[in-house]
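Hi again,

Forgot to attach this to my earlier email, sorry! This is the prediction with S-adenosylmethionine bound. I've pasted everything inline since the attachment limit keeps bouncing my files.
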Amino acid sequence: MKNHDTRGTLYVIATPIGNLKDITFRAIEVLKTVAWIAAEDTRHSSALMKQYGINTPLKSFHEHNEHQRLQDIENALLQGQDIAIISDAGTPLISDPGYILVQNLSEKGFKISPLPGPCAAIAALSCSGLPTENFLFKGFLPAKTAGRCAQLETCQQETATVVFYEAPHRLLDTLEDMIKVFGENRFAVIAREITKTFEQFQRGSLASLLAYFKTHEEQCRGEIVICIAGAPAKKTSEIDAEKILKLLLTELPVKKAAAVAAEITGLRKNELYQLALKLGTA
Ligand code: SAM
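C-alpha cells for the complex follow:
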C-alpha cells in the first residue's frame, strides 16, 4: 500500500442549484484536473461540463451503485489519483448520495476536501427572514400523510427554524399536514426556484400560504424549500412560579425562596420577592 502522502484526495464539490454561473473558479479548476468525476447523473452534469469546457471523464455515482463505486474511488485514490464527487445540484451528501463514500474513506484516513458552494437549504434560510442562529434541517418528508405527520410531530416543539425540501406535487398536502401539526398561524416561508428565472419567496402563516398556493396552482411547480418558524420558547408562567414559591416558602425564608425561585424560573428576583411577601401574608 502507498504511504499516506502519495494517496489522492477526494474533492466534494458543490455545483449550481439553477443558475449555471453559481460555481466557483476553484471548482472549475479542480473539476478540470482530477482523474475522473463521480457524478450522480452523468447526462445531467454534462451540460455543466460543456458550459465550462471541462473534459474530465464522468462516471455515474448514485444510491444504487455507491458501494461498488466506493471500491473504484478507493483504488484510484490509492494510486495517487485525485477524484471529485458532484451531485445533480448543490452540495453532495445534502439529501444527495455520498454519505457512505465519505464515511468509509474518512474512517480509512483518506484526505477529503470540500469545495463549498450552493445549497438550497442555506440559500432559502439566508433570505427567509426567519431566525438563522439555530436551525434544524430535516430534508425530505415521507410521501404519505401518516408518515409525514409523524415526522412533523417530532419537531412540533422545536424552537429553531426548521427547513424541509419538498416536491412540488406534494406542496398542498404537506402544507395541510403542517397546519394539523403546527397550527394555522405558524409563520413559514416557501422558497421556490432559487437562482432561477421565476425565483419566489412566499411568506406568511401556514393557512395563508395554503390559501395562496391553492389559488395559484400554476406556482406549485419547480423546486421548493419550506422554512418554518420555530415554536415560541416556553415561558414559565406565573402560575408555575407561584407553585414553586409556595413550596420553597415551606422550607426557606422569603428572601432565599425568591432567589431560588428566580434561579429556577428565570423570572426577576425582585418580582418573586414581592410575590413571596404576598403569599406569606395570604
Ligand atoms: N444537494 C442539494 C442541495 O445542496 O441543496 C439538494 C438535492 S435534493 C435531491 C433536491 C431538492 O433540493 C429539491 O427537491 C428542492 O427541495 C431543493 N432544491 C434544489 N434546488 C432548488 C432551487 N433552485 N430552489 C428551491 N429548492 C431547491
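The chain is about 40% helix and 20% strand. The chain has three domains: 9-118, 121-228, 236-281.

That should be everything now.

G.
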